[in-house]
Amino acid sequence: MRRLMTAAILLAISLSMVAGCKQTAKDLWKDTRKYYREYLNTPATLDFEPADAEPVEERLATVYTPVGLALEAFRRDLDNKDIMPEDEWIEGMLSKHSWLSGITVVSPEGVIYKQRPEAGGLKALDFTPLFSEEEQFGYRELRAYSENNPLGPEIYVGKPFFVDNDMKGLIVAHFDPRALLSVCPDPARLVIISPTMTLWAGHYIMDTTPLDKVDWKTTLQKETSATFGNDLGEFLWVSKFIGNMPLVFATTSSEFPIDESQMDALMVPEPMMDVPTVEASPAQEEVAAAPMTDVTEAPLAAAVLPPDMKQPALNDTPEPAKPTSDYVWSVQIGAFHNPEYAQDRIELLQSFGYSPCLMDLYDKHGQLWHVVQIFDSPDKVAAFKEVRTFIKKGTGLDYNVEILDAGVVSRRKKCF
Fold first, then answer.
1. Do 397 and 291 meet the contact criterion of CB atoms below 8 Å apart?
2. Whose CA is closest to 138, among 232, 56, 19, 244?
3. Fewer Cβ close by (within 10 Å): the C or N end of the chain?
4. What distance in Å separates the CA atoms of residue 9 and residue 28, rounded to the nearest whole number?
5. Using 50, 70 and 90 to split pLDDT, how confident is the model at 10?
6. pLDDT, tens digit, for every residue of 109-143?
7. Residue 200, Cα to own-chain centre: how many angstroms?
8. What is the Cα–Cα distance from 85 to 106, expressed in whole angstroms?
9. Quick one: CA dihedral 132, 135, 138, 141, positive or negative?
């Protein structure tokens, strides 16, 4: 600032000398201020004209912003916890960020102190990479990695916790990115990529897009946003860090080949509390009237069977069920050894306006189960829509979705 004032004064002096030194000191200072504002420190102006955004920029803002906000709120909440978490904190995180699959508190030696859901869900969880030491990465900072589990991708985010300033382990929150897309207004048009794999391709066929050819590890070391294109069009992407792992979010306004069947993976109910972990068979422990309160729902997309192997979970005889090509998706609200428990469940469902059905079915071990169901259909989408409707009823009851032989269902189903 001093240099600017000096320059202004010198400029004014020079001009005054040219004018023959006829100005008074008061006029000289007046002109000095004028020249200073005109040439050296011009007033700032604001342009309130709306900027013209490209269609692809508008689309990326639409599909990414809610996801980015959800991730940022989750990151702040987890990053603020550096002591052994209370059970109430864990339940609060799972309730607030309902797209989380679970939270585990684990030691560097692999000892699990706390875990919700208690069984960890359907996926086999691997926390080991989160404990690897990285140079230039803070000892107390969040760390993350992603893996391509056979049942779908999973993202792990770990926060170190301490006792007397000694690190005792990690608080690990993990989630399937497909569950996170519950906050996205148009998940078909959003692509999510980690440095090592595609986590969600939307409805696009990835090997036809320019994103499939990118070396993301190298690219993300240099850029945080860019446009990549090929003969079919362009994708715009931005990156967001979760801990030490960047995630790429991309979309396009061009027309690329799509595969709508990929959207089937999103046909899952919203994660919620008070539901049992889903097993391959509904042969759970007997459930009394009180709902379970310490586990969350695992992603049900894993129930999809390969086209060449349709294996129903239950049968109408003690022998193991045989493969079938004629099956239905059965929405079940309880499976019990004790028929009285099943009858209690039926009456409770009736009080909520349902007309439930009862099926006496055997599992692969020959055990008899009294299965209460509210819906079945060969249409998977219709079954999961029914689940969403059931959740909105607010019954607080456990639920499950099973693939059953259509003939078995028709023979053994008795509705009330």
1. yes
2. 244
3. N
4. 9
5. low
6. 888 899 988 766 667 788 889 988 654 456 788 99
7. 10
8. 11
9. negative
Confidence check: pLDDT of 7 > 70: no
- Triad 399, 402, 406: Cα angle to 5°: 130
Task: Please give the Cα distance from 290 to 287 (Å, whole number).
Answer: 8
Measure the CA–CA gap between 199 and 202, rounded to whole angstroms.
9
Q: Please give the sequence-ordered ranges of beta strands (E in DSSP) within 339-399, or none if there are none.
A: 357-362, 368-377
Beta carbons within 10 angstroms of residue 106's beta carbon: 22
**Cross-strand partners of 246:** 241
Q: Give CA–CA dist 126/143, Å, rounded.
A: 14
- 207 pLDDT above the threshold of 50: yes
Query: Look-up: residue for tokens 């497909």?
Result: 178
The pLDDT of residue 70 is 93
The counts of H helices and E strands in the chain are 9, 15
Show Cβ contacts of residue 91 under 8 Å, excluding neighbours closer than 6 positions: 116, 273
List the one residue out of 220, 213, 264 whose CA is nearest residue 235: 213
- Residue 238: φ, ψ to 5°: -135, 160
Task: Return the percent helix, strand and coil in the chain, to nearest 5.
Answer: 35, 25, 40
Question: Residue 184 has what pLDDT?
Answer: 92
Q: How far apart are CA 146 and CA 156, in angstroms?
A: 6
CA distances from 267 to 160, 181, 191, 348 (A): 34, 11, 17, 27
Distance CA 140, CA 105 (A): 15
Residue 187 has pLDDT above 90, yes or no: yes
Place of tokens 């000398």: 17
pLDDT tens-place string over residues 62-110: 999 999 999 999 999 999 999 999 999 999 999 999 999 999 999 988 8
Which amino acid is located at 243 in the chain? G
- Please answer whether residues 102 and 284 qualify as being in contact, where contact means their C-beta atoms are separated by less than 8 angstroms: no
Can you tell me which residue has the tokens 């399937």? 176
- Determine which of 55-59, 77-81, 222-226 has the lowest per-residue pLDDT on average: 55-59
Q: How far is Cα 56 from Cα 222, in angstroms, rounded to an integer?
A: 22
Examine the pLDDT at 296 and tell me if it is beyond 50: no
pLDDT over 50 (residue 289) = no
